[in-house]
Amino acid sequence: MAVTIRIPTQLRNLSGGAAEVALDAGSVGELLQALDVAHPGFGERLFDDQGALRRFVNVFVAEEDIRFLDGIDTAVSDGQVLSIVPAVAGGC
């Protein structure tokens, strides 16, 4: 069993159109790196030049924001769902 990664519509061109990708890893950081290996291009969209998660990228594990857990070091286990949610801004 693996962790299911939900891919937002804006990034599905990188996953070949897939809305979900299943991968094995022990932490959020490892999972996102594995996603970039499996589908190149995710790394530059999710991480800045220093290797930190970009400010406008929100990541949730089991509906919990990783910023309130252990960040990219947050542990993941088989069967969990990780959601990548780009921040939405704008308006008048």
What would your notes on this structure say?
- This protein has two helices and five strands.
- By secondary structure, the protein is α+β, with helices and mostly antiparallel strands.
- It has a single domain, classed as Beta-grasp domain (Ubiquitin-like (UB roll)).
- Strand 3 (57-61) and strand 4 form a beta hairpin.
- The chain has a five-stranded mixed sheet, covered by helices on one side.
- The radius of gyration is 13 Å and the shape is globular.
Overview in brief:
With 92 residues, the chain is of the alpha+beta class.
Q: Structurally, how many domains make up the residues? A: 1
Bulk shape: globular
Radius of gyration from the alpha-carbon trace, in angstroms: 13 Å
- For this structure, what is the CATH class? Alpha Beta
- Major sheet: order of its strands? 2-1-5-3-4
CATH fold description: Ubiquitin-like (UB roll)
| SSE class | alpha+beta
Please report the distance between the alpha carbons of the first and last residues.
45 Å
Mean pLDDT: 94
Strands, count = 5
CATH-scheme architecture: Roll
